[in-house]
Specification:
With about 250 residues, this protein is α/β, with parallel strands linked by helices. The chain is built from nine helices and ten strands. The protein folds into two domains: about 5-205, Spore Coat Polysaccharide Biosynthesis Protein SpsA, Chain A (Alpha-Beta Complex), CATH 3.90.550.10; about 210-249. Strands 1, 2, 3, 4, 5, 6, 7, 8, 9 and 10 form a ten-stranded mixed β-sheet that branches. A hairpin with a 5-residue loop joins strand 6 (about 115-125) and strand 7 (about 130-135). The longest helix has 19 residues, at about 230-249.
């Protein structure tokens, strides 16, 4: 298996941002990549924009779903289509630093890692200006991650040569969190390259902007996906709530 990186990009009504997302991948100093954009039955002109980039660069690929199925289904379809050793994640409204893949793949090879992540910026929806920087711990194991998801989806890369293809549970939210937990049952730790190498676009329409709703999805993840007993779910939900309040105070 070569060192090809497969970039998993779900897209739904992202016509305002998908061009900058693709361009941030096209600009990578690491050239051995393919970008699999899976359109989740958008109603805007995003598909036409992606097709224009396909004409310019054969590494950009497009899959169109027949009906809207949610980001987990879209990401899993991209993972199924992926040919790369490394599986990386970048949603259709986020961006990468041009050195992101070069630095992160080198980091993973040097440390013989199965799962890695980086720090990232939060950026304004319209202007793309930096709001703040999300700094993550140098490493995390399964039990530490249960307390708070410190792995930004747009920064994560896993090695399919070590792990095989790993798919997300097809739930509405927290499917990325569930995937990292799944992987951390197979390997002891995930490791962070402590440098901001991606930009997460803060969108007012995002489900994650509703903190109460996000909390409910976290509880469902503990109980229905991880199958934690109620007392353990309460323990980790308490940690999640405490850290969220501290983060957003």
């Amino acid at each position: 298996m070569s060192d090809l990186v497969s970039v998993v990009t779900p897209m739904y009504n992202a016509e305002k941002f998908i061009a900058s997302t693709i361009e941030s991948v096209s600009a990578q100093s690491y050239g051995d990549w393919e970008m699999i954009v899976v359109d989740d039955a958008s109603t805007d002109s995003g598909v036409e924009i992606v097709k224009e980039y396909q004409k310019r660069d054969g590494r950009v690929k497009l899959v169109e779903l027949e009906r809207n199925s949610g980001p987990a289904v879209a990401r899993n379809r991209a993972i199924k289509e992926a040919n790369g050793r490394y599986i990386a994640f970048l949603d259709g409204d986020d961006i990468w630093d041009e050195k992101k893949l070069e630095k992160q793949i080198a980091f993973m090879k040097e440390g013989d890692m199965a799962l890695s992540y980086t720090d990232y910026y939060r950026i304004e929806e319209s202007s793309g200006k930096i709001i703040d920087t999300i700094e993550s711990p140098p490493s995390v194991d399964y039990y530490e991650l249960l307390k708070q998801n410190v792995i930004g989806c747009l920064t994560a890369v896993y090695d399919a040569e070590k792990l095989g293809k790993q798919y997300m549970p097809e739930i509405l939210k927290r499917q990325d969190f569930a995937l990292w937990l799944k992987i951390l049952k197979k390997v002891p730790r995930a490791y962070c390259l402590n440098e901001p190498l991606a930009g997460y676009r803060v969108r007012s329409s995002s489900l994650s902007s509703n903190k109460i709703l996000s909390s409910l999805y976290n509880w469902k993840l503990y109980r229905e996906v991880e199958k934690l007993p109620w007392y353990r779910a309460v323990y980790y939900f308490g940690w999640y709530t405490f850290r969220s309040l501290r983060k957003y105070r």
